[in-house]
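Researcher: Please translate sequence to C-alpha cells.
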Amino acid sequence: MGMLGLTLIFVGAVLFINGMGGLKRADDRSMAVFNFLAGFLFLFAALLSLARAEATQDYYGVAGILLFAFTYLYIAASLWFDLDLRGLGWYCFFVALTTIPYFTLNYQAGEYRLGTMWLAWGALWYMFYLAYVPGKNFGKALPYATIAIAIFTGWIPGLLMLTGNW
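Model: Translation complete:
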C-alpha cells in the first residue's frame, strides 16, 4: 500500500488545486505547473510499476496509474498552451468508461473502498467530459465535487495507507 498511498496523496493535492482553480482561486498557468509535476510523478510511478509488472504480469495496475498520469499531463498542457479543452474532454470520457471495469473488478475482489474510489473518479471524469465537450455548465458544483473527491479519495486514503491505518 506504500506506493498507492504515496500516489493518492498527490491525487488529493492535484485535484484540490484544480478544484481551487475552478473556483478562480488559482490561475491556469500555476495549476498547469502542479499538474505537470503530478503527471510526471505518476508517469515515474508507472514506469517503476512496469519494471515490476514484467515479473508479476500486473499490467492492469500500471494502466490504472497511467490513466492518472496522462490526465494530469493533458490538463497541464491544455492549461499551459491555452488549448481547446474538447480533446481533454474526450479523453475524460474514455477514462470514465475505463473506470467501470476497475470499479467492478475491485468489488468482485472484495476491495470495496478502492472500488468506490474508482466509481467516484469515473463520475468526476465524466463530469469533466460533460463540461468540456457538450459544454454543460455545472457552476461551482464541479470545482466543489473535485475538492471533495480530492479529500475523500486521495488525501485521506493516502494518509491512512501511509500510516498503516487503511
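Researcher: Any highlights?
Model: The helical segments are 2-22, 28-56, 59-80, 86-108, 112-132, 141-162.
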